[in-house]
Design goal:
6-stranded antiparallel sheet, 5-stranded antiparallel sheet, elongated
Length: about 750
Amino acid sequence: MSQKDNLNRSRIENATVEKLKKMPVRTRTAMITAAVLFVITFLLQFVLATVMPVGENMITDWRFISSSDPKEIEGDITSYKQATKQNQIAKIWGSDYMRLQYTIAANEAPSRLVIKTANNPLRVDIDGEQVLNNGYGEYNFTGSSYQSVMLEAGDEKTLDIYLYAPLAFSIEAYVAPVDITLKESFWQYIGFGVSMAVIFVGAGIFLLSLLLAARSQHILRLLLLSATVFFGGITAMLYTYMQNTSLLSWPYWFLVQLLCELLLMVLAYITVLACCGKAFKNAVVWIPVVIFCAIIPVFPNVWAIRAVAVVMTTAQMFIALKANAAFAESAAEVPHVGVVRGLLFYGALVGIYNTCNLFLGMRLLSGYLFSFSLALFCIVIFVVYCRQIIYLDIKKYERIRQLYTDSAWIEDITTLIVNMFLQKEETTFLSEIARGLSGIIERNLEINDEQAEVHTCVGVREGDAFVEIYNNGPVESCDYMSVYHYLNGQPQKYMIGNTTVDLLFQMDQHNAVIHFENILCGVTPGVENIVKTAHLNLSAAYQNLNLKNDVSDIQEELFINLATVVEQKYKQTKSHLLIVSALSFELGKALGMSDEKARLIALAAMTHDIGKIGIPESILEKDGSLNANEYECMKRHTEVGFNILSLQKGKFFETAAVIARQHHENFDGSGYIGLRGRQIHPAARIVRVIDVADALLSKRSYKEVWSAESVKQYIEENKGTLFDPSVTDAFLSCADELFSLRERILEDEN
């Protein structure tokens, strides 16, 4: 080979490697899975047929001749081809009739001649006398591939086998004792045992499916998996009978076997397609295919079988290609989706291989190996789905519990604060805060399987001393003055210890201290959030003790304050919320919205990240980029925010809830939950653009500040993918004004 040829070959190999590297991981996994399964099936058949034959006296040295005319191989033949162990008999294209001759050595005891074919009709003559005919000259194929002929003791004998092989061809023949040996018995009955085991496994999977997924979205998948395993065992059992007994010699048994294999393939494909709801519509392709397969019993001839094989293989390839794209969109729904897709390609490979061999007259892949491989693969998928269902059930329980955790104390605090805003008398106000807040803390700890009986006391300053007005006991002593002096000089008027909490409320010349203790299990992050949120809003209520505000306004203020607490904790600044709110209002106006509607969106946008209250602080405060697991956890904040906000009533909370849930959705459907285009609420589409723009213009631990021009270019480049085109156009039309407004907000904060 020349240097130029070597160079071209190297370039081709490098190009192939690059294509494989660029190929999606799941597609590579699918192709590798299919190739490995196919190679394993092929090698197992080779090992069972060649390396580990059942008969010790295997006949390989055949004298043979083939022809398209059966008359040409009858009578005395003077010229035969000679086969050897290394160079065995192979069918010649167009020569469907074959005659094989062999001289059987003299034997002192009776023996058996065992012959196995690829369901080929044959006639056996010994010394010119016919001893067996299972349809030769009458049928195109026969049911049983196993035949046995008794050989009497005596001198050497001339064995002639006349065989018709219009489809696949193979022959194995060996001389064995009359009594079946242990080795032969093992190979005969191993198929029966494994087939029965697969059938029982299929039945067990069916029952387990009903127990596991009676109310699950996976029930269809699991039932189809169980049906595939069960039917795979039935098909393997039928194939084993036909391979090891001559009871099913009627030709229609071959058609039954072929139909079983075709239907097993159809069932396997539908099962895999059912793993992905979006691909399931492709299963309708099998309806005309199954109807077409029904022509085999009506027209039991060679070309009908070949036609069915071609149609079947074409359908397999069509569905494999169609489903491949659909699986890419639904990968998140399917565990180990690359391996699952591999089954589609594996079936297509087997179909192509067998179809080619039907035309070329070569040996087909073993039916029971193919059946077992499909059944085993479905069992593996079933185990994966069982784990998935159990995992989903656990996650569902955790989500329900988290929902209750996220929302229960918010609801309690909302009710408490609303009631406090309606109070007129200071003593009642403070006592109710102490009683109500201690109850909320106790319930929050119970949700986390912790028990605590929080003790509370309240002191009000009168002159140079504090007078205790409430003590739910036993709080033996509380140094109110020391707490007051410490908190009075702090920007935050609360102090959180390991098992204690102190709150300072101030109004003109009035000062009050509320003390909580006996939180023996420790102040959890949940309790800390309760304290901070409650104090922020109750301080406002204390300062407006004699005013009656609208309850809905109070609730909105509570949640905006809560969102501010979360934002300050996350970004160490409240400017992001103010910027998103102000810029969303201006962008809404640029889109032609009324002042009222734009103001509603702007106000609701303040709470878009409120769900981060349910994200661990270690993730919120991490320097640098998040890893995959941390990112998945961070994505939960949209659902947590929706859960919190959707429990309240009113237009503000309806808009705030949908913004919280959808503000990370992309216009092309590549966002957190996959909403696309007009499925995304208009308010969320507005906040999406503003949120991204402000994030790019701000310094983060994982990025530097972008220039205004870079941000505008980024927004424009992602028009129609990340962002709504109409919102993008409106943003770009007033981007300079929006950026100027942002700068003024930052200056005001400083």
